[in-house]
Write a structure and sequence with these properties.
five-stranded mixed β-barrel, four-stranded mixed sheet, alpha+beta, about 30% helix, 2 domains, single chain, about 25% strand
Amino acid sequence: MNLFELFSQLTPPDTNKSSLFNALTISESPFAKIGINHEGFPVLLISPLPGKTLPSIKNMRLKHLELTNNIECKISESDNTSISNFTIIILKSQEEKLVQYFLQISDAFIRSLSIKPTLQEMLTTFKSFIEIFRVMSLPPTKTVQGLWAELFVIHTSENPQVLLSYWHNLPEEKFDFNADLEKIEVKSSSSLERIHTFTADQLLPPDDKSVLVASLFTKQIPNGLSVVDLADLINRKVKTDSFVGKLYSIVSQTLGSNVQESIKLKFDPELAKNSLRFYRHQDIEKIEKVHIPNKVMDVRFKSDLSTCKSIELEFLKGKGPLFSAL
């Protein structure tokens, strides 16, 4: 049972006391509980290590998150009440998609810890968790449509973990996926026209490098998939926790302060699946390097791929690790 399902079983305690929570222990990780406070906000409660606290983690208030270290809490669980000290992380929202996103990240955070985590494990994981929410106060770096398209390519790939490993750490990097000799750039269109904007560098790599352009159509629909839904589907396929942490870190960094509104948007997965095509950079019309003066930089242009021949994925098998993972 995932944390969202556990949380759905809880009701807010009938009190105004901020230190009282209704909670359930996470069976696979007995040091952690998922709870709810009197405001209906989800709460992650972490038991301190025996005889130790987390002195390097300071109490913190962010836009969406509040962390309080080593606080005495009264916990009501299965008709039993106990008092103990916990480090608590509260999401200050009842918005369903944001709650779902918080609990997905919490699940990844909990799974990354051993049954009896060391102090260093706890410190490292707490800091990573906090950073995911800290960047939500920064300006967004890409549209939700662009992020959704990248996540969709990861989700539909044969080996999502490989794509995650080569996914850009910074959303503004030149290529969306970069394995040195192999690179993938994802382009999406809501106009149902395969016309995309490129930089000259994206279509004019060095001779020993190969670039694939993934092109797909997107359309917002009420019953589609959101970036949170796609992140969850990818999370279920990926077994290495460090890659799951990277997944949520990049999603939060990309959406920034727009996260609360962006994660509500849903796009049509069937349209995206049926329209997804891959193109070699050599086959896309472009401004050739010979026509770009030496002192002219950051050249951008639109190219129409509607008459460009796409490449079948079967021809990419046996290539390098990135292309073979598609």
